[in-house]
Amino acid sequence: MKRSVSAALWFFISCLIVSIAPAVARTVSIDHGGTYWGENVTVDRDQVIDGDLTVVGGDALIEGTVQGDVNDYGGHIEMLPGAAITGEHNEFGGPYFGALAPWATAAGASTIMAENRRILRSLAYGAIILLIFLIFPARVRIALDRLERHPGLSAGVGTIALLAVIPIAVLLLVSIIGIPLIPLEIAAVFAGVFIGQAALGMLVGRRLFELVHPQTTPSPLAALLLGLIVIGAAQVVPFVGWFVTMLVVLVGLGAGILAFIRESGLGSARAPISGPPMKPA
After folding, report:
1. Largest Cα–Cα distance in the chain?
2. Least confident of 149-163, 174-188, 252-266
3. pTM for the complete prediction?
4. DSSP string of 232-267?
5. Per-residue pLDDT tens for 77-106?
6. Which terminal residue of the chain has fewer beta carbons within 10 Å of its beta carbon, N or C?
7. Is there a contact between 18 and 74 (Cβ–Cβ < 8 Å)?
8. Tens digits of per-residue pLDDT, 211-228?
């Protein structure tokens, strides 16, 4: 089990590093082809590059000429007017920033490249949730309990919290002395969303395990991975995917917030949903 957890963790971390690298990479101008890691590469105007150019974890800005292929893994290839690539140019994946700001994703990519970016964003997002579960397993379990006992309350609290984010940020900004608290507010919202979505993934995965194998009790990690796969698949379904995404965010955020509130402060709770106890990870 420990070996499988480590393999899954390193796989998700690798995908996360490749997907977020363009946001933090430095920009360099080049005069020859080759492979460049973790850098945003620029081919200046009137510059001629002999040979193939490969960029891993960065963007490629082409203003001059590349006499060969241009391949970009985890970034975007941008060609300005007057640029030329004599060979093929291919993009594999894209920046994770597009998961949080889809409007900032580069336009004009082919359908296959767009699907690659979508898959990579899903893997990166799943990696964050997996890391949150591995770092804060007790808090995720509390959020899972809150989600089972108070599903309606979780959705309500998540809705109110999401609506209150901007007004609270404005108040902190106006107060001047509260400006340093704005990053903490943003971090708290993301922490609540990730913790709550980890709990929601565990709940969905466990219910599916119980339907397929009623006599089998899944481990928390197995339930979480299955739940993330199912939720991710539902989010890409046309027409209903946006509703699933919004529901997951609201319920997850509410459950994450309730995980930091004592059960006694939530009033009388109904009995938890029946089900066998979960095995330790």
Report:
1. 73
2. 252-266
3. 0.54
4. HHHHTSTTTHHHHHHHHHHHHHHHHHHTTS-GGGG-
5. 888 888 999 998 888 755 444 443 343 344
6. N
7. yes
8. 888 877 788 888 888 888
Could you state, in order of their start, the residue ranges of all structural domains in the chain? 2-118, 136-266
**68-76 contacts at long range (C-beta below 8 A, 24 or more positions apart):** 68/33, 73/18, 74/18, 74/19, 74/21, 74/22, 74/120, 75/21, 75/22, 75/40, 76/22, 76/106, 76/109
The CA distance from 207 to 73, in Å, is 37
The answer to whether 143 touches 198, Cβ cutoff 8 Å, is: yes
Distances (CA, A) of 40 to 35, 43, 88: 12, 10, 19
Q: Which two tokens stand for residue 272?
A: 């938890």
